[in-house]
Structures are given as structure tokens and as C-alpha cells.
């Protein structure tokens, strides 16, 4: 009887170990680039393939290449604002479909490289618009601007490739600046907020709320997608963590350093509390410390230094 009991205990231990291994293997399949998803989607319907390409484009904004991370980010955007979530979805689909129609490189399309600029354009058009949510006229510049990003991406690639430089968000920056120049606060169809919000020139206080500064560091990750709510920002941070823990650590570090840099340069407290002082640093730290360079203590210090420099244009 004792021998039977011992055998049962060993069998249960092996079963638990096997179950733990299966769970761990399942989790590992959801991390990194998830190349197995591309193989699975190879012979599936175009609509399903487009969905995966679009989700990779969403994740590319945070330098990730994981469709599940993209799904989490899209869920966070809809959680924060269904209107912004709709604009982001429309932007990434418009730019990805444009790339397919004009025959861009299939590897770039499947990797989401033609989707993230369109998503950023659509999100920022929604943020800058003073017409409020569910203003359907805004869908016209969103679709047009997102599609134009593909043409700019293609044109800039042939130039920047000579110096081994990535196109990155150049198309997004160009399109959104042109859009704001062509419209204005008094435009009858596409009005946007003034460049200097009311109270911007008021005296900046000296008393800080430590809890709000800490909250602003977390919001700095969400502000990459123009998301200013805490829990959706944490979900976005979780999407980065799913793709790469190293990238997530640099995202938080970059936001913290950017916020501290803003504090040292007397940036308005509203920018510190809302995460607007941290998102550029977060992106810079991720790019230098977790993506474009081989990770080492030198590149880690360089990533921290780049966060401080990233705040200068904002001030």
C-alpha cells in the first residue's frame, strides 16, 4: 500500500511538471516575433492575413513585432476612447491596404512596417481635433493622410538606405505637420486646438505631488499612443513586456529619465503629470537600449543620455 501511494505521488508530480511545461511553452509562443503565426496564416483568407499585418503595424509603434501585443494595445485604445480606437484601426488598415495595392515589398507589409505611421497620423489627428469625438468628417483626412504615409515611406527609403538609416516616423511627422499647417483652429471642417493651450504662459508652481509624478512616468508609455489614462497605459506597458522584457524595462526607464529631465528644466507640472514629458524619452530609450544597438552597459548609458536630449525639442 505504501509503495502504491509513493507511485501515485510520483505520477502526480510528473503530471504537474508536464502541465507547467505546457503552460510555459504556451506563454513562450506568445512572446517575441511570433513567426509561427505568419506560417499559420500563409494559406488563410486575405482578411485574416490583413488583420495580423495590421496588428503588427500597431505594435511597431512601440518598436515591437508581435500581433498579440498589437491586439493588447488596440484594446487599450478602445478602453481609453472608442473614438480613438476606431481612428487608430482605420489608420493602420488604410496604410496597410495602400501598401498592398501599390505593390510594396511583401516582407515589409507582413511585418507591419507600412502600418504604424498611418496609425500615428490617425491618432494625432483625433487628439488635435477640436471638433470632439465622433466627428465623421475627420475620417477623410485620416484615410488620406494614412495612405500618403506609404508613399513617403517608399520615397524616403530609397534615399535613407544609402546611409543605412531607417525611415522610422518621418512620414508621420511630415504628414501631421502639413495637416496642421493646412488647417487651423477656425477651419470650418477640420478645426484643431491652438498650438499654445490656455494657461500655458501662466506662472508655473513649485510644489510637486510625488504620486502624480510617479503616475506620469507610467502614463509616459501610454502617451506614445496619445493615451492619457492609467490602466490602458499599464496594458500598453504589458504589451511591450509580452514582446520583450528588456524593451519594457527601457520604456519605463526612459519615461522616468524624461520626466526627471522635464522636472530639472521647469517643464509645466501638467506635462509631468500627464506623461507628456516622458513619452519621447521612453521611445528613445527603447530604440537605443533595446532595438538598434547590441545591449551592453555602454549602450545602456547612451540610452539614458538620449532620453535627456529627447526632451529638448519639447521645451
From TrEMBL:
Is Coiled coil among this UniProt entry's keywords? no
Please name the InterPro entries in this protein's record: Ammonium/urea_transptr (IPR029020), Urea_transporter (IPR004937)
Would I find Lipoprotein among this entry's keywords? no
Q: Pfam family of this protein, just one?
A: UT
Q: How does it sit in the membrane?
A: Multi-pass membrane protein
Question: GO molecular function of the protein, one example?
Answer: urea transmembrane transporter activity
Q: Name one GO cellular component term.
A: plasma membrane
> What are the subcellular locations of this protein?
Cell membrane
Major site of localization recorded for this protein: membrane
Q: Which family does it belong to?
A: Belongs to the urea transporter family.
Protein name, UniProt field: Urea transporter
Q: Which source organism does the UniProt entry give? A: Gasterosteus aculeatus aculeatus (three-spined stickleback)
Amino acid at each position: 500500500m505504501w509503495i502504491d501511494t509513493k507511485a501515485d505521488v510520483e505520477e502526480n508530480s510528473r503530471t504537474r511538471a508536464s502541465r507547467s511545461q505546457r503552460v510555459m511553452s504556451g506563454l513562450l509562443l506568445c512572446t517575441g516575433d511570433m513567426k509561427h503565426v505568419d506560417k499559420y496564416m500563409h494559406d488563410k483568407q486575405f482578411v485574416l492575413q490583413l488583420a495580423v499585418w495590421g496588428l503588427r503595424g500597431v505594435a511597431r509603434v512601440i518598436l515591437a513585432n508581435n500581433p498579440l501585443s498589437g491586439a493588447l494595445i488596440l484594446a487599450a485604445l478602445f478602453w481609453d476612447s472608442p473614438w480613438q480606437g476606431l481612428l487608430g484601426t482605420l489608420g493602420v488598415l488604410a496604410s496597410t491596404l495602400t501598401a498592398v495595392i501599390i505593390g510594396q515589398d511583401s516582407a515589409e507589409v507582413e511585418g507591419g512596417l507600412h502600418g504604424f505611421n498611418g496609425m500615428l497620423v490617425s491618432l494625432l489627428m483625433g487628439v488635435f481635433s477640436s471638433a470632439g469625438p465622433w466627428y465623421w468628417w475627420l475620417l477623410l483626412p485620416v484615410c488620406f493622410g494614412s495612405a500618403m504615409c506609404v508613399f513617403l515611406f517608399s520615397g524616403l527609403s530609397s534615399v535613407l538606405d544609402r546611409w543605412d538609416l531607417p525611415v522610422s516616423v518621418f512620414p508621420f511627422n511630415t504628414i501631421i505637420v502639413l495637416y496642421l499647417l493646412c488647417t487651423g483652429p477656425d477651419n470650418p471642417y477640420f478645426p484643431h486646438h491652438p498650438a499654445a493651450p490656455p494657461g500655458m504662459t501662466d506662472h508655473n508652481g513649485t510644489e510637486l505631488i510625488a504620486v502624480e509624478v510617479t503616475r506620469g512616468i507610467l502614463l509616459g508609455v501610454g502617451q506614445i499612443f496619445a493615451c492619457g489614462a492609467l490602466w490602458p497605459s499599464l496594458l500598453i506597458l504589458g504589451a511591450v513586456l509580452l514582446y520583450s522584457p528588456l524593451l519594457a524595462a527601457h520604456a519605463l526607464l526612459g519615461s522616468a529619465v524624461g520626466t526627471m529631465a522635464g522636472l530639472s528644466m521647469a517643464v509645466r507640472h501638467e506635462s509631468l503629470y500627464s506623461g507628456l514629458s516622458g513619452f519621447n524619452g521612453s521611445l528613445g530609450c527603447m530604440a537605443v537600449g533595446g532595438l538598434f544597438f547590441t545591449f551592453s552597459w555602454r549602450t545602456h548609458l547612451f540610452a539614458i543620455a538620449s532620453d535627456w536630449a529627447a526632451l529638448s525639442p519639447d521645451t
